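Running low. Invent one:
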Amino acid sequence: MRILLFKLTIVQAFVLYQSGGLMNKIAFFFLLMFSIHISLFVPLHAEETEIIRLELSGGSILVGYILSQDSTYIEFQTISNLKVSISREIIIKQEVIRARVVEGEIWKSDPNQSRLFFAPTGRALKRGRGYFSVYEIFFPFLAVGITDWLAISGGLSLLPGAESQLLYLAPKITPVQQEKFALSGGILYIKFPEELDAAGIFYGVGTYGNESASITLGMGFIFGEGEIADKPVFTLGAELRSSRSIAFITENWLIPDSDVQVVSAGLRFFGENLAADFGLIGFPGADIGGFPFLPWIGFSYNFGK
């Protein structure tokens, strides 16, 4: 995975660089930075074994693996390789936690792995889980997993001074869910103020990889004013964990028959329930003076189990 990501980003970076222009060279540095992260920071070993959290009477908490068990005792091995025999009578709570062991450390899952900055990944938002997010301050978004393969999301913009706001809905289904690959499809529907027609995009998106590193490729057709575009828009994105609570993210939109494309890169900081995204968006091919980036800011609170 690391070699594949490295080759992909290096090739894309130098294509942009050789095409000339300030914004293309900015995109080159975005992707070059990502390739450096790939070559240096992708964990070399991540155990996939199910991780268990035990809460014991007296307040003790153990995290590790169940080696064997019967109706009376659990043979348990902690992350630090301490083996203990625990009576079921003193176990108050036992649960599976969403985490991985990376070189002896517990890395909890990114709570927002069903999306990049804004574009969806191929991964599902599982039943009973959800998040409330705010993009660029003015665009709140609520998403809920109805089943393990169906999620519904949407929101209403909060643009200051506007007489009417944007309404957006985004159902998503995930029919393919494998260990390292997930495939989803969905619709982003946007209802503009009354004088404008509704618009949106039909899309399909696939994600390959694990929680340490992954690639996302999507394709969609824009619709509006009763018509559907003849040519698709492509999304190319990637995620790369560089520590227990930080991931590097890039999200890029390839628009057909357009001199202007959209590239972005930034970081996601996250805990068990909260996440914050900070990035820069560039527009290769656009004639932009002054500061050539649009800052991206997103916050989210994740809920459910």
Remarks:
- Residues 124 and 178 are 11 Å apart (CA to CA).
- The chain has a mean pLDDT of 83.
